[in-house]
Amino acid sequence: MRLLPCADSGLLVELDDLDAVLALYDDLEEDPPEGIVDMVPAAKSLLLTIDPEEGDVEQLSRAVSRRSVGRHVRAATGEVEIPVVYDGDDLAVVARLTGLDERGVIEAHTGQEWTVAFCGFAPGFGYLVGGDDRLRVPRRDDPRTRVPAGSVALGGEFASVYPRSSPGGWQLIGRTSLEMWDIERDPPALLVPGHRVRFVEAS
Questions:
Q1: What is the pTM of this model?
Q2: What Cα–Cα distance (Å) separates residue 165 from each residue in 87, 111, 119?
């Protein structure tokens, strides 16, 4: 664990891997040190923000350094079901890369529970991790200049849904009509760290 102060109200905690990040995130969410107002997980780090009137970075550093970082085991508190039409432009490519046929890719994608590890890239873009290593595929060599909103995709060890039309290099396997980001919703993001996700095949 490496602790790096960020100005007078932030602390960046660098960790070995995503599992350690999720474990520390869960621990701090369950029993937060005094003054924490926000936590932002990433692949190998956790950014903590405090209210300077309630705590300070040095005090927070001491509190975090005393935490034991184990493995991510706590059950997530929310569950989201995402209906997917599996007709993505890269479905056949993913089938070839994984050694599965297209039906096998769909069954592997829907047959496991995913967890939102962290969010980034764009508002509402959640990085989902699961337990089926067969679906680990490389990102495209030639990223698209425009990926439609609602596209369901795979990239490396992650799955996600594009919340809006944007450039992107992930492998597209399907699409959903659910809105991933809506500023009128509380919270605006449908996918937030810690939530469980189930993909369900839709006609």
A1: 0.74
A2: 17, 27, 17
